[in-house]
Design a protein that fits this description.
heterodimer, A: 270 residues, alpha/beta, Rossmann fold, 2 domains, 9-stranded mixed sheet, two-stranded antiparallel sheet, 7 helices, 11 strands, B: alpha+beta, 4-stranded antiparallel sheet, 52% helix, binds flavin-adenine dinucleotide
Chain lengths: 270, 389
């Protein structure tokens, strides 16, 4: 029996809590001069995958695939330290010129090539930088797999079925998903594991293969800017929040309500 | 697991492995060690749970070969681990350092294969803690003046005497200590022994309350006709003093790292406070006097770190490093004292209270000028090296 294969997709992103306003120019977020981190939701994706692996038993394997600059190698290695079994980095300048459509094509192609019998693909629901939430569902579409976003938890029922919990504005929803399938995680209730020294030493000895479009048998016409359907034009800092007004209703409630309505009309909220 | 990559990641010329270990220990220190730091200091409590967690993470024998349950990392990675722990809790860093560089390390260097299997594998894997007994009531800086005796009787040595100020004493299961096997032979009459807590005639005496490092355990080792099997002699008879001094050379790198960690931690707290505290209508960080203190702290901390990393790199490269280790230890100790004092100054009256951690850093820093050779002894060691040319 081939191992029960789980693929996790992780992305290196700039730590947007540390971005300075002057770094927010041009047409994309900076990739240098700021701490780079693993996209926080992807950390939950990895944790979820490792938990699924443990539940599935000794035969299960977690493979990490990332698309990004060669500098993402170090972050990808850390996923090995945390317990992933293998990792690949899709690294070629052409990959970086695309949008979520071309990225999804590259990732789905990588999955087919590198882990052809994968049963589950785990993503973070959103990335800190692009924040479009499209990559996971698009990969599912290209693979013709089931897909669920904004997931909070997933458990293995059997090797063909997952129980998945989603959080939506309405509350928690529970699904049964027939595999293969894509799940996109948000922040989960479980704690992220700390890598141990054995993991770090193993990661250090692990080579992270860099993969080009040709090695993944991708159609050149479908990679990068060639198929991108959107292009980021401008990046600028969010305007600083301005203080609102305080309406005191303790003396005359009606006057206060009138004042508030006038203010909201003035600001086109009503 | 925080998968952060520091922008300044190459500033210290660290290898990928060293950076990964730093990030891992930093993550653990911030999430698990820092939240306990104030409480263990206040209650003089040794945090057993922290050391169990560190054993699980594989940190307790970090620079020891994995053949003996260690982490197989290099000595700079270990120094960085001490630094990262000290940055949030110097007590934890001290107990970790005493266990690793004063017990695991000499066992890996001087013990025979059977002793390594029996003792090193247990301490390096973190199954139990180790303690190192050199200092005696009448033999501190003058460790060659050891008065504890070991008399050979058949298959055993009979030990009598006492060791004081021994870090981890009350929580350790494996001990190494020196004793005089030949009176009148000077330091060449001193031998080293490894033994377990349940050794007949061995007991733990009272412990004093400490100024700082209060979350790190210490105690007195008492030998009253203690019976230690002859096979527990480490290396050769009469070589113990040499082994223990060589151990201290390496240990000093970790005390240097401890000083760097304390200084960095004090700087972290001072930087944060200076930007939050407002007086005369502005953040005190806008006053040049405060900026100059912060600048000095940052500069000196970096300088100390360079000395510590340099000594560790010489050791890794198999070059002589005794002088550099003493310089790193001495300089970093004084930087830790100064930085923690300035951190209190920047906090003003609040810094003098127990509500802020900087007074703890100040009390903890003082140990660095005393343990593993006082500052005076370091100056003597450095002078001896440079005078001999
Ligand atoms: C928190 C803590 C943990 C410790 N842990 C351990 C441990 O795990 N194992 C262990 O064996 N020991 C340990 N020690 C003991 C430590 O190593 C000794 O305290 C230290 O070596 C100094 O010895 P002493 O206290 O006897 O001071 P003394 O040697 O009596 O020194 C008193 C003063 O005289 C100065 N002095 C001494 N000789 C000279 C000289 N020739 N020239 C100039 N000045 C001199 C010293 O620098 C010092 O200022 C620990 C100490 C502390 C505080």
């Amino acid at each position: 029996m081939s191992p029960f294969n789980i693929v996790v997709f992780v992305k290196q992103v700039p730590d947007n809590t540390k971005l300075k306003p002057e770094q927010l120019t041009g047409n994309s977020l900076p990739k240098e001069g700021v701490d780079m981190i693993v996209n926080p939701f992807d950390e939950y994706a990895l944790e979820t995958a490792l938990r699924l692996k443990e539940a599935a038993g000794a035969e299960a394997q977690v493979t990490v695939i990332s698309l990004g600059a060669a500098s993402a190698k170090e972050i990808v290695k850390k996923t090995i330290a945390a317990g992933a079994d293998a990792a690949y980095l899709l690294s070629d300048p052409v990959f970086l010129s695309g949008d979520s459509t071309s990225v999804a094509y590259a990732l789905s192609g990588a999955l087919k090539q590198l882990v052809p019998d994968a049963k589950i693909a785990v993503f973070g629901t959103l990335s800190l930088d692009a924040s479009d939430g499209q990559t996971g569902p698009k990969v599912a579409e290209l693979l013709d797999w089931a897909s669920l976003t904004t997931c909070k938890n997933a458990e293995i029922v059997d090797l063909e079925t997952l129980n998945v919990w989603r959080e939506t504005e309405r509350g928690i929803e529970q699904y049964t998903m027939a595999l293969p399938g894509v799940i996109c995680m948000m922040k989960c209730d479980y704690e992220l594991r700390t890598a141990n020294i054995k993991g770090v030493m193993k990661a250090n000895k692990t080579e992270i293969p860099l993969k080009t479009p040709a090695e993944l048998a991708l159609e050149p016409a479908l990679v990068g800017a060639a198929v991108a359907t959107s292009q980021s034009e401008n990046v600028w800092p969010r305007p600083a929040k301005t203080a609102g007004i305080k309406v005191d209703g303790s003396a005359d409630a009606k006057a206060a309500v009138d004042k508030l309505i006038a203010y909201l009309r003035e600001n086109k909220v009503l | 697991m925080t998968l952060t990559i520091d922008v300044a990641r190459d500033k210290w010329g660290l290898t990928e492995e060293q950076r990964m270990i730093r990030d891992m220990v930093r993550d653990f220190a911030v999430s698990k060690v820092e939240p306990r730091a104030s409480e263990i200091d206040k209650n003089c409590r040794f945090p057993v749970e922290t050391f169990e967690e560190m054993a699980e993470l594989g940190l307790m024998g970090l620079p020891i070969s994995d053949a003996y349950g260690g982490g197989g990392a290099d000595y700079l990675s270990y120094a960085i681990a001490v630094e990262e722990l000290a940055r949030v809790c110097a007590s934890t860093a001290l107990s970790f350092a005493a266990h690793t560089s004063l017990v695991c390390l000499p066992l890996s260097m001087f013990a025979n294969e059977a002793q390594k299997q029996k003792y090193l594998s247990r301490v390096a894997s973190g199954q139990c803690l180790g303690a190192y007994g050199l200092t005696e009531p009448n033999a501190g800086s003058d460790a060659g003046g050891t008065q504890t005796t070991a008399v050979r009787q058949g298959d055993h040595y009979i030990l009598n005497g006492a060791k004081i100020f021994i870090t981890n004493a009350n929580y350790a299961d494996v001990f190494i200590a020196t004793a005089l096997t030949e009176k009148g032979a000077g330091t060449k009459g001193i031998s080293a022994f490894v033994f377990e807590k349940n050794t007949p005639g061995f007991s733990l005496g009272a412990k004093d309350e400490k100024l700082g490092m209060r979350g790190s355990d210490w105690g007195t080792l008492q030998f009253d006709n203690a019976v230690i099997p002859a096979e527990n002699l480490v290396g050769e008879e009469g070589q113990g003093f040499k082994y223990f001094m060589q151990t201290l050379d390496s240990g000093r790198i970790s005390i240097g790292a401890l000083g760097v960690g304390i200084a960095q931690g004090a700087l972290d707290k001072a930087l944060q406070y200076a930007q939050e505290r407002k007086q005369f209508g502005k953040a005190i960080s806008e006053f040049q006097a405060i900026q100059f203190m912060l600048a000095d702290m940052a500069m000196e901390t970096e300088a100390a770190r360079h000395l510590v990393y340099n000594a560790a790199r010489l050791k890794i490269a198999g070059q002589p490093f005794g002088k550099e280790a003493s310089m790193a230890k001495l300089f970093a100790s004084e930087v830790a004292m100064k930085a923690s004092s300035l951190a209190i100054q920047i906090h003003g009256g609040y810094g003098y209270t127990k509500d802020f951690p900087v007074e703890r850093y100040y009390r903890d820093a003082k140990l660095c000028e005393i343990g593993e050779g006082t500052s005076e002894i370091q100056r003597m060691v450095i002078a001896r090296h440079i005078l001999k040319g």
